[in-house]
Amino acid sequence: MGPRKSQVVYIWTCRYNESYHSATGTAVTTSSNNRRNTHEADADRRLIYITDIDSWCMLAIVSTVPSLQAAFLRDFVYRHIEFKTHVGVQVPTSGFQNFALEFHLPFYACKKGPELVKDQRLKTNQKPLRRTGDLQFLKLAPFQTDASGLDDCIYEAQISVLVTGVDHWSWTAFAFVDTYYKGPENQESVEHYLEQVQYGARLDPLTEGQYYAEPPVWRPREYFLRVLESRVKQVKREWHNTVFRILQRIEPQTHDDLLSEPEHRQGHVLDRDTQIFFDKTIRLLQQMSYLISLTVDAWMRFMNVELAYFTNLENLPGKQRTPIMLISEINKEVEDLLVLRKNLDHQRDLLYGLSQKVR
Questions:
Q1: Mean pLDDT score across all residues of the chain
Q2: pLDDT reported for residue 166
Q3: How far is CA 333 from CA 60, 286, 330, 338, 341, in A?
Q4: What does the alpha-carbon distance between residue 262 and residue 87 come to, in Å, rounded to a whole number?
Q5: What pLDDT, in 10s, does the model give residues 250-279?
Q6: Is 229 exposed, middle or buried (0-12, 13-18, 19+ CB in 10 A)?
C-alpha cells in the first residue's frame, strides 16, 4: 500500500502496581513517551488504535513488536489487508506462554455524498485496498436523487482487533479501523479521541468510545469481549443502514412488479438499462448476503470451539458487565444480522424471478 502524508496513531499505556492499586483504588496511567511511575509495574497494558493503516505504519509496528508476538501480528495484518472474516483464539500448546485473541469484521457501508470517495491506500497492483462503487445502476428503481444532489455510494470497510501478550498481565491490543469513507473529520478519528481527552473524557477508541478508558480492564479476555461486543454492534448498525438504503430502492420493483409495464420492455426483451439493473442488483445482494454469512459463521465457530477459553471469567471480581452479558449481547446482534441476510436473500430471489419472467 502506498504511503500517505501522515499517520496519526493513538497509543494508551497503563501500568498497574499491586501496592499502589490496593492503596488508592486507581491505576497509574502514563503516556508511551513519559512514564511517571518509577516503580516496577506488576502489569502492563497498551492500546494501539490506528485508522486507515498504510504500509509504512504497518512496517513500523511489525519491526518493533516482540518476537513472541510477531507471528500473531503477521497473521493479523494479512487478514486485515485481504478483507478476511475471523473470530478466534490462538494459544500455543508448547513453548513460551503467549496468546492471541483476534477478530476481523468486514462490512459494506452505504454513505450519501456528492461524489464517490476513493481509498487512497494502494495494493501492489496499484488498485485501492478497499473497493468502492456508486449505485447509479439502481436509478431504474423509482427513486429520485434528493434536492441536495447527493446520492448513495457503497464502500468496503473492515474493523480488526488483536489482543496479544506473553501472559495475562502484560499485553497489547491493536485496532485497525477503516474510516476513509467517512471523511477527515469523524467521530472515529484519532484526533476526535485526543480532543475528548482535553475535555476530560478518556474514551476507549477500541470500543468506538462506548466505554471509558479508565478505570482500565486489566484482564485481556474480558477486554477482548468488551471490544468485540462494541464493534459487533457498530457493524450491525452499518449493515442495517446499507441494507435499508438498498432495499428501499428495489422493493417497489419486486413488490409492485413495475417491470411489467411496456416502457421497460422491447418485445419481451429487456432493454440494456433494465438488464444492468437486474444483473448488478442481484450480484450486489449476493455479495452482501455472503459477507454477512461469513460473520455469522465466524461467530458460531467461536461459540462452538473457543468459548471454553472464557468460561472461568464469571468468577472474576469488579466487572461492570459480566462476560456472559457481553456474549449474550453479541448473540443478539448476530441474530439481527441473520434477519438482514434473510431479507437480502428474499429480495434477491424475487428479483431473479422477475428477471426470468420478462426475458
A1: 83
A2: 85
A3: 35, 21, 5, 9, 13
A4: 50
A5: 887 777 654 455 444 444 556 777 888 899
A6: buried
Given a contact cutoff of 8 angstroms between Cβ atoms, the answer to whether 121 and 230 are in contact is no
DSSP-derived letter for residue 31 is -
Report the DSSP beta bridge partners of residue 156: 108
pLDDT in tens, 111-148: 988 899 999 999 999 999 999 999 988 876 554 455 55
Q: At what angle do helices 67-81 and 55-64 cross, to 10 degrees?
A: 160
> Count of CB atoms within 10 A of residue 191's CB?
13
pLDDT one-digit tens code per residue, 23-73: 222 222 223 333 333 333 456 889 999 999 999 899 888 888 888 888 899
How does DSSP classify residue 185? S
Burial 20-29 (b: 16+ CB within 10 A, else e): bbeeeeebbb
Q: How many CB atoms lie within 10 A of CB 349?
A: 13
Give the 3-state secondary structure of residue 126.
Answer: coil
Burial of 6 (0-12, 13-18, 19+ CB in 10 A): exposed
User: pLDDT over 90 for what percent of the chain?
Assistant: 52
The domains of the chain are located at 9-357
Enter the C-alpha cell of residue 169. Answer: 498481565
